Protein backbone atom coordinates (compact mmCIF):
# COMPACT_ATOMS: atom_id res chain seq x y z
CA UNK A 1 0.00 0.00 0.00
CA UNK A 2 1.15 3.56 -0.63
CA UNK A 3 2.25 5.61 2.35
CA UNK A 4 3.28 9.04 3.56
CA UNK A 5 5.90 9.25 6.30
CA UNK A 6 6.66 12.08 8.66
CA UNK A 7 9.85 11.25 10.51
CA UNK A 8 11.52 12.72 13.56
CA UNK A 9 8.94 15.21 14.85
CA UNK A 10 10.86 16.51 17.87
CA UNK A 11 8.59 18.10 20.48
CA UNK A 12 9.28 19.20 24.05
CA UNK A 13 6.46 18.15 26.37
CA UNK A 14 5.62 17.01 29.90
CA UNK A 15 4.35 13.43 29.65
CA UNK A 16 5.35 10.58 31.93
CA UNK A 17 4.41 8.50 34.91
CA UNK A 18 7.04 10.12 37.14
CA UNK A 19 6.60 13.51 38.79
CA UNK A 20 9.99 14.71 37.51
CA UNK A 21 8.94 14.06 33.89
CA UNK A 22 5.87 16.23 34.34
CA UNK A 23 7.82 19.03 36.03
CA UNK A 24 11.02 19.10 33.96
CA UNK A 25 9.68 17.79 30.67
CA UNK A 26 11.67 16.11 27.92
CA UNK A 27 11.84 15.68 24.16
CA UNK A 28 9.59 13.21 22.38
CA UNK A 29 10.37 12.06 18.86
CA UNK A 30 7.35 11.00 16.79
CA UNK A 31 7.43 9.05 13.52
CA UNK A 32 4.22 8.55 11.54
CA UNK A 33 3.53 6.25 8.58
CA UNK A 34 0.10 6.86 7.03
CA UNK A 35 -1.11 4.17 4.62
CA UNK A 36 -3.48 5.29 1.89
CA UNK A 37 -4.14 4.98 -1.82
CA UNK A 38 -2.12 7.67 -3.61
CA UNK A 39 -3.20 6.67 -7.14
CA UNK A 40 -5.43 9.71 -7.66
CA UNK A 41 -2.92 12.19 -6.22
CA UNK A 42 -0.04 10.78 -8.24
CA UNK A 43 -2.08 10.97 -11.44
CA UNK A 44 -3.79 14.33 -10.98
CA UNK A 45 -1.29 16.42 -8.95
CA UNK A 46 -4.23 17.45 -6.74
CA UNK A 47 -3.50 18.19 -3.08
CA UNK A 48 -7.11 17.31 -2.20
CA UNK A 49 -6.42 13.72 -3.28
CA UNK A 50 -3.83 13.12 -0.58
CA UNK A 51 -2.97 14.02 3.03
CA UNK A 52 -1.41 17.46 3.44
CA UNK A 53 1.66 16.41 5.40
CA UNK A 54 2.40 19.94 6.61
CA UNK A 55 -1.03 20.10 8.18
CA UNK A 56 -0.66 16.56 9.56
CA UNK A 57 2.66 17.58 11.14
CA UNK A 58 0.97 20.49 12.91
CA UNK A 59 -1.81 18.22 14.22
CA UNK A 60 0.71 15.71 15.60
CA UNK A 61 2.77 18.43 17.23
CA UNK A 62 -0.38 19.90 18.84
CA UNK A 63 -1.33 16.50 20.31
CA UNK A 64 2.17 15.94 21.70
CA UNK A 65 2.11 19.41 23.30
CA UNK A 66 -1.37 18.90 24.77
CA UNK A 67 -2.45 17.85 28.26
CA UNK A 68 0.15 15.54 29.90
CA UNK A 69 -0.50 11.80 30.01
CA UNK A 70 1.25 9.02 31.92
CA UNK A 71 2.02 6.67 29.03
CA UNK A 72 3.47 7.26 25.57
CA UNK A 73 1.20 4.40 24.47
CA UNK A 74 -1.79 6.59 25.31
CA UNK A 75 -0.19 9.58 23.62
CA UNK A 76 0.29 7.57 20.41
CA UNK A 77 -3.37 6.51 20.54
CA UNK A 78 -4.39 10.18 20.77
CA UNK A 79 -2.26 10.93 17.71
CA UNK A 80 -3.88 8.11 15.72
CA UNK A 81 -7.41 9.22 16.64
CA UNK A 82 -6.65 12.81 15.67
CA UNK A 83 -5.27 11.86 12.25
CA UNK A 84 -8.07 9.37 11.50
CA UNK A 85 -10.66 12.00 12.48
CA UNK A 86 -9.10 14.62 10.20
CA UNK A 87 -8.24 12.49 7.13
CA UNK A 88 -10.74 10.00 5.72
CA UNK A 89 -8.13 8.84 3.20
CA UNK A 90 -5.89 7.25 5.85
CA UNK A 91 -6.65 3.53 6.04
CA UNK A 92 -3.94 2.48 8.46
CA UNK A 93 -1.01 4.03 10.31
CA UNK A 94 2.03 3.28 12.39
CA UNK A 95 2.88 5.73 15.15
CA UNK A 96 6.22 5.48 16.94
CA UNK A 97 6.97 7.69 19.93
CA UNK A 98 10.50 7.71 21.27
CA UNK A 99 11.81 9.06 24.55
CA UNK A 100 15.50 9.80 23.92
CA UNK A 101 16.24 10.41 27.62
CA UNK A 102 13.75 8.68 29.91
CA UNK A 103 14.60 8.56 33.61
CA UNK A 104 16.05 5.04 33.52
CA UNK A 105 19.45 4.40 35.02
CA UNK A 106 21.56 2.46 32.55
CA UNK A 107 23.25 2.51 29.17
CA UNK A 108 20.85 2.62 26.20
CA UNK A 109 20.01 4.87 23.26
CA UNK A 110 16.30 5.46 23.91
CA UNK A 111 12.96 3.79 24.55
CA UNK A 112 10.05 3.78 22.13
CA UNK A 113 6.66 2.26 21.41
CA UNK A 114 4.95 1.69 18.10
CA UNK A 115 1.21 1.37 17.57
CA UNK A 116 -0.32 0.04 14.37
CA UNK A 117 -3.90 1.18 13.91
CA UNK A 118 -6.43 0.47 11.16
CA UNK A 119 -9.47 2.56 10.41
CA UNK A 120 -12.66 1.14 11.89
CA UNK A 121 -15.23 0.56 9.17
From TrEMBL:
Enzyme class, spelled out:
lyase
Function comment: Catalyzes the conversion of 7,8-dihydroneopterin to 6-hydroxymethyl-7,8-dihydropterin. Can also catalyze the epimerization of carbon 2' of dihydroneopterin to dihydromonapterin.
Q: Please name the PANTHER family in this protein's record.
A: DIHYDRONEOPTERIN ALDOLASE 1-RELATED (PTHR42844:SF1)
**Which InterPro entries does the record associate with it?**
Dihydroneopterin_aldolase, FolB_dom, GTP-CH-I_C/QueF
Q: Which NCBIfam families match?
A: folB, folB_dom
Give the similarity note: Belongs to the DHNA family.
**Ranges where the Dihydroneopterin aldolase/epimerase domain occurs:** 4-117
Pathway(s) of this molecule: Cofactor biosynthesis; tetrahydrofolate biosynthesis; 2-amino-4-hydroxy-6-hydroxymethyl-7,8-dihydropteridine diphosphate from 7,8-dihydroneopterin triphosphate: step 3/4
Looking up Pfam families in the UniProt record yields: FolB
Gene3D superfamilies the record matches = 3.30.1130.10
EC numbers on record: 4.1.2.25
Q: Which reaction does it catalyse?
A: 7,8-dihydroneopterin = 7,8-dihydromonapterin; 7,8-dihydroneopterin = 6-hydroxymethyl-7,8-dihydropterin + glycolaldehyde
What's the protein name? 7,8-dihydroneopterin aldolase
Q: Which UniProt keywords apply?
A: Folate biosynthesis, Lyase
Q: Name one GO molecular function term.
A: dihydroneopterin aldolase activity
What gene name is given for the protein in this entry?
folB
Q: Which SMART domains match?
A: FolB
Amino acid sequence: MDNIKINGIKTYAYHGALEAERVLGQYFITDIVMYLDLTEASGTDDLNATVHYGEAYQLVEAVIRSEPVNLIEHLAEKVSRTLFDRYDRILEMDITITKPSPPIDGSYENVSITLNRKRDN
